Amino acid sequence: MTRPIRLFINGFGRIGRTLLRQILTDEMASRFEIVGVNDIAPLETCAYLLRYDSVYGLFPGTVETGKGWLGIGTRRIPFFATPDLRRLDLREVDLVLECTGRASDRATAEAGLEAGAASVLISGPSAAADTTVVIGANDGDLGAARIVSNASCTTHAIAPLLRSLDLGLGIERAHVTTIHCYTGSQPTVDQPGASPERSRAAAVSMVPTSTSAADQVMALLPELQGRLSIAAVRVPCLSVSAIDATFQLAESLDQPITDFLREAFDGSHLIGLADDPCVSTDFRGRPDSLVIALPETRSIGARQVRLLGWYDNEWGFSARMIELAGRMAARGAMAAPHPAPAKAIKRPDAPLKILADPPLAGSG
Q: Could you tell me what percentage of the chain is helix, strand and coil, using 3-state DSSP and rounding each to the nearest 5?
């Protein structure tokens, strides 16, 4: 591809902002062009939350706003505020990063396609997607799917590890507990919720709960059906989560488990290894899907292993989403001329116009 991949971010919450922050502050910036952002929250509020982030700190550059645009450094990115993506003209967009958290039904999931974009990548589990892809677990399932789910952060932490261990050592049985920081789906004070436990204040208690990763991992790795269980506990930490996993291996180890892990994941950008005794905050901003804490690794006898791994549930997940976006674009499913959407709108009085005659507004 001779030009940058044109991305449109729909939903500028935690993941939407983290995606933009990574793309504009990393060496990948030359590969991607953010050609627009859409969120129904006020533009000034969105800019403020990008500029000042309670997890990742001050944005490393200037963040400004104007009428219909978000200014980042020398870039002016068109900013929209429509609840219906179909009202935009996205015919020259290669990929919509669907980050609203609402794409659970087909009509919402395919709105970007109906607006003219070539593909849609959803930042979470969605039964409405054509397929779900976790890099390192089921990469080959991507195919020509135009609506793809990027699964969940915990699925990215667990599935590649399980696949590697099952192929390399054979898993007879396994149990994984995710120790997950609290999220915006939990209340700050006690109030009625989806379950009694999830009705309790997030920053006060450790909360036993369920995780969507249980069903997702089974769907991605059906060969583990009947051999794996997954549980979850939400803990009062702002960022970075962990998995605590115990494996009963099919065959006896013929080397220390740490040696196997070093051989299996040497040079991997998905699963990292930490030799030092660390705590959760040490892994904030790590792009790995999982970082195995080697000092916490244990072998019990010749066939049982305990692993502890850390993952930045926002930064690592966003890194995989960007990587998958690049793979989707590389298939050749790039933006091509489409009939104009029936109710397409352009932002009024904007200094830069999205999807007018090339070149597109914005720069990645």
A: 30, 25, 45
